[in-house]
Task: structure prediction
Amino acid sequence: MSPSTDRATWPLWEVFVRGKRGLSHVHVGSLHAPDATMALRNARDVYTRRQEGVSLWVVQASDITASSPDERDSFFDPAGDKVYRHPTFYDVPEDVEYL
Result:
């Protein structure tokens, strides 16, 4: 068998679907496919069987870089010392409504 037809060598793809009422894509699962076109077709067949999706994204899992859950405290801590990111830093004039 050639590498393109050997399922053991097919890359892993992560699948994201945007629902009819959704504003963003949501991760729904993974699948193996030889290329992006086949991954998209397989994702359509597997993850939108009940016509719940209006848009699909497939991303090769090897192309995703993510933060580690074990490092969440140290990774996200630097944002806490930036006071300008907190709404209490700003003075809101009294005549401004609905802010």
Notes: The chain has one domain: 7-89. Strands lie at 12-19, 26-32, 53-60. The first helix runs from residue 36 to 47.
